[in-house]
Design brief:
By secondary structure, this protein is of the alpha/beta class. 40% of the residues lie in helices and 23% in strands. The radius of gyration is 22 Å and the shape is globular. Bound molecules: the ligand CSC[C@H]1O[C@@H](n2cnc3c(O)ncnc32)[C@H](O)[C@@H]1O and zinc ion. Its cofactor is Zn(2+). InterPro entries: Amidohydro-rel (IPR006680), Deaminase_MtaD/DadD (IPR023512), Metal-dep_hydrolase_composite (IPR011059), Metal_Hydrolase (IPR032466), MTA/SAH_deaminase (IPR050287).
Length: 447
């Protein structure tokens, strides 16, 4: 008598040389298969067991590749990619006051946001990001652009004391922001959120309104906080309080809050972050380039604070390559801690995946390759000489990775990158629009 084999039908099977599932932590699986059904992961198992148990519509063989969850870029200003390289080698406030804000005044509008966001998404997808967080003007255009491409995004509407192309001031921003939350609140790709720009640009009234909106809707709050020494000393002078203390006093520091930058922090700030359950979004390259300061990542993690990672905008980074950001993060963490063991490769990979999912409140369905979670997956081809030989694939991803090795991605089970080619963005057409913006911005600079 022959034993009857019962097989399960599924959509896609990905055979990978290595799988880093992120959960459980620090595990590397060899010669495993991921089985996808629709938008979700159905199974992760050894390839010989997959041969026996599953029949799939499509099989993708990745014999030299690492497969892992898609990266989560937790802070950026996507459309600012059109300002990449426009104003370099400047400290934050000069960069903003003398260059970026005047340029934004001149150029920001719906088409700029649509084109700039698509440029940023092309770069992020090409370099392994599947979810990004954005804080910029015309968030309704950003949300639609991400939805059209099929990228997951937390879209923070901006809240700032002064008028911009998007509105006349805080009252209008909050009204439009509440509409954004209402429109997208049940979407699987887009998560609307509230983006008070910074403690030095948002006064007490709008901060209180932001809190009320967050409490009424459950929307997350993302804020630039403790970016520079000037911000801290200026706050102490004006308000008699460090920025974190003021934000806590206004009720804004809690488990729905994402604090971006957090350089120049002392033990009182760490205590406030720890007790509040707020998340830190580390942006090492922007902090380095603007000479803003250092975030003590290992110390924060040792206190149990969730630290995720972001690139910030391409105008202060000047790229959106999250693997490059991880390399910088690991290097800086070791130097800041005076400890070569600080922010190991596995901790860094967790920072760009499960920690991001936690900050988003999406740990249950994003950030790791666990059956039942959403199929947001990337593959990195390690066969090139610059990634050989392989002793430890996690090490290569963080310390040796070149963005061009990212070969495949799927978001919600849908292919976004195949053999290094974007499937849902017409890059040639996008470049025509980008070149047009470059010509206009150059002309403005020459005036
Ligand atoms: C209110 S929308 C976003 C606003 O923030 C500006 N911005 C970009 N990068 C930074 C940064 O590192 N710190 C502070 N503000 C930043 C951007 O130009 C928009 O005006
Ligand atoms: Zn920023």
């Amino acid at each position: 008598m022959t034993a009857e084999t019962i097989t399960t039908a599924a959509d896609i099977r990905i055979n990978a040389r290595w799988v880093i599932p992120i959960e459980p932590a620090s595990v590397i699986l060899e010669n495993h298969a991921l089985i996808l059904q629709g938008s979700r992961i159905l199974a992760l198992l050894p390839q010989d067991e997959a041969d026996r148990d599953y029949r799939t519509r499509e099989t993708i063989d990745l014999p030299d590749h690492v497969v892992m969850p898609g990266l989560i870029n937790m802070h950026g200003h996507a459309a600012m990619s059109l300002f990449r390289g426009m104003a370099d080698d400047l400290p934050l406030m000069t960069w903003l006051n003398d260059h970026i804000w005047p340029a934004e005044h001149q150029f920001i509008g719906e088409q700029f946001i649509a084109d700039g966001t698509q440029l940023a998404m092309a770069e992020m997808l090409r370099t392994g990001t599947t979810t990004f967080s954005d804080m910029y003007f015309f968030p309704e255009i950003v949300a639609q652009a991400a939805h059209d491409v099929g990228m997951r995004a937390q879209v923070c509407f901006p809240l700032i004391d002064f008028p911009t192309a998007w509105g006349s001031g805080p009252e209008e921003y909050l009204r439009k922001g509440a509409d954004l939350i209402e429109v997208w609140k049940d979407d699987e790709y887009i998560t609307p959120a509230i983006g008070p720009h910074a403690p030095y640009t948002v006064s007490d009234g709008p901060l209180g309104d932001a809190l009320a909106l967050s409490e009424a809707t459950g929307a997350r709050i993302q804020i630039h906080l403790h970016e520079t020494a000037f911000e801290v000393t200026d706050a102490v002078e004006k308000f008699g309080q460090r920025p974190t203390a003021r934000i806590e006093e206004k009720g804004l520091l809690g488990p729905r809050t994402q604090c971006v930058h957090m350089t120049q922090i002392d033990d009182s700030d760490i205590e406030r972050l720890t007790t509040s359950g707020a998340h830190v979004i580390h942006c090492p390259e922007s902090n380095l380039k603007l000479a803003s300061g250092f975030c003590p990542v290992q110390k924060l993690m040792d206190h149990g604070i969730n630290v995720a990672i972001g690139t910030d905008g391409a105008a202060s980074n000047n790229d959106l390559d999250l693997f490059g950001e991880l390399r910088s993060a690991a290097m800086v963490a070791k130097a800041v801690a005076g400890d070569a063991a600080a922010l190991s490769a596995h901790q860094a990979l967790a920072m760009a995946t499960i920690n991001g999912a936690r900050a988003l409140g999406r740990e249950h369905d994003l950030g790791s390759l666990v059956p039942g979670k959403l199929a947001d997956i990337i593959a990195i081809d390690l066969s090139d000489p610059f990634l050989q030989p392989v002793y430890d694939p996690a090490s290569h991803l963080v310390y040796s990775n070149h963005a061009r090795a990212v070969s495949h991605s799927w978001i919600h089970g849908v292919p976004q990158l195949q053999e290094g080619k974007l499937t849902r963005i017409d890059v040639a057409d996008l470049m025509l629009r980008v070149n047009d913006w470059r010509d206009r911005i150059r002309q403005y600079q020459a005036q």
